[in-house]
Write a structure and sequence with these properties.
InterPro entries: TolC-like (IPR051906). This protein is an alpha+beta fold. It contains nine helices and four strands.
Length: 434
């Protein structure tokens, strides 16, 4: 029974994950996103940084001290009677020993460095994902503008045909054909410019993200309102923000470094074994050596510097937290405003398109002048262009909020093998129960 329930739950979760991917048809597939982001130079460099910090951790665990071998050879010349010459040597093996507790602190510092490197990788992936999202929608915007100008050229070509019919019927002056041709030529020029901008955006996007293929057709999703309130999204964004996590990790590292500097007030002793041969072998010496540095003002100054660095790190963390909280709030309110603007622009576009269609039909039936038709078509096109941009901006704003909350793509180094976190189905304005 338990196994059946577990299987059912797994199928439900898998279905939910599949539904989430189908809900974003105007984005590249998550698997492609992950592969593309891994090739970004900043991500490659950040991943190499983990290897560097792993080596640093090993170095810190091994400690800064090494075994020292000291060999001395000398010749003793005794001039007092009876004169003699002796060949002598001195051999010493010494090692500085870390005092108890210092090795643990060094290991903790090494582990903290690895943690910070992993956070740097996560931040690099996240920044690359932001850049990909921005570039993707820049391409979509230019592409949609080009498509609308294609439609406008087709409509003006149809309008030119209608003008010719009225001229042949004697219902319109030939001057109207010149006006229709001028409007068509201007639309064709705008179409050419829009095509160039779309191609330039596509080229830049593919060069910045090698391996990314752009589809021939993209189904633009309808804008969706942002669920929950600003406080909820602020908490979600801050909980997954790599910049804040890196600032917190830097504060922990600075505090560890302060503790390590305080431990260094007591110097590490150096112990050794010494063997010597003197007077040509008549004397053999074996002994132990102990060297203890006497700490001075330099060690105290190092502690003061580490304490100041820890205070600075804590203040930087507070600044980053405040900045990111404000950014998260702005993301939420920006997504809300973009959705409202998209709805208003879509309504205006529908009204303007209806007015343009009525004007064109009236002209085809012999009523009204061409100038009114061209004006109506121009206003309708402007409204459609604005509505298209507003729709894409609303989707981009919502996706950016989901991306910062780690609900869009599974790109974190510790969670890339898992599907994106799903939004719980709860009434708007309420927080989901854990």
């Amino acid at each position: 029974m338990k196994r059946a329930c577990l299987l059912s739950l797994t199928l439900i979760v898998a279905t939910a994950h599949a539904a989430e991917e189908l809900a974003v048809p105007d984005l590249p597939p998550p698997s492609v996103v992950r592969q593309v982001l891994e090739r970004v130079p900043s991500v490659v460099a950040a991943r190499a940084g983990i290897g560097m910090q792993e080596a640093t951790r090993k170095r810190l665990l091994a400690g800064p001290h090494e075994t020292v071998v000291r060999v001395t050879g000398q010749e003793r010349d005794v001039r007092a009677a009876p004169t003699a010459q002796y060949r002598e040597w001195d051999l010493a093996v010494e090692r500085t020993l870390r005092l108890p507790g210092k090795a643990a602190l060094d290991g903790a510092l090494g582990e903290q460095g690895v943690t910070q490197a992993r956070l740097a990788l996560g931040d690099a992936l996240h920044e690359a994902a932001r850049s990909l999202l921005k570039g993707w929608f820049a391409w979509l915007k230019e592409r949609s503008q080009a498509a609308l100008w294609e439609e406008q050229v087709a409509l003006l070509q149809q309008q030119l045909v209608a003008v010719d019919k009225r001229i042949h019927a004697g219902d319109a002056p030939r001057l109207e054909r010149l006006a229709a041709q001028a409007a068509l030529a201007q639309a064709e020029a705008n179409r050419a410019q829009a095509r160039f901008r779309a191609q330039a955006a596509a080229t830049e996007l593919m060069r910045r993200f090698p391996g990314l293929t752009l589809p021939d057709a993209v189904q633009i999703a309808q804008p969706r309102p942002v669920e929950f309130d600003g406080a909820y999204w602020r908490e979600e964004v801050l909980a997954h923000n790599h910049e804040l996590a890196a600032a917190q990790a830097e504060t922990r590292r600075a505090r560890l470094a302060l503790t390590r500097a305080e431990a260094e007030r007591i110097p590490d002793p150096t112990v050794g074994v010494r063997a010597a041969r003197e007077r040509g072998g008549e004397e053999h010496i074996i002994g132990l050596t102990l060297t203890v540095p006497l700490g001075g003002a330099a060690r105290a100054a190092a502690v003061d510097a580490s304490r100041a660095e820890a205070d600075m790190a804590a203040q930087r963390e507070a600044v980053v937290a405040a900045k990111l909280a404000a950014e998260a709030e702005n993301l939420f309110h920006g997504a809300q405003a973009a959705y409202a603007a998209a709805m208003a622009q879509a309504s205006a576009a529908r009204e303007m398109e209806a007015a343009a269609a009525l004007a064109a039909r009236a002209y085809a039936l012999g009523e009204g002048g061409l100038s009114g038709v061209l004006t109506a078509r121009r206003l309708a096109l402007e409204a459609r262009l604005a509505a298209s941009l507003a729709t894409l901006e609303a989707n981009e704003a919502r996706y950016r909020l989901l991306l910062d909350a780690h609900r869009l793509w599974a790109i974190d180094p510790d969670e890339h093998d898992h599907a994106p976190k799903q939004l719980p189905d709860v009434p708007r304005g309420q927080k989901p129960q854990p």
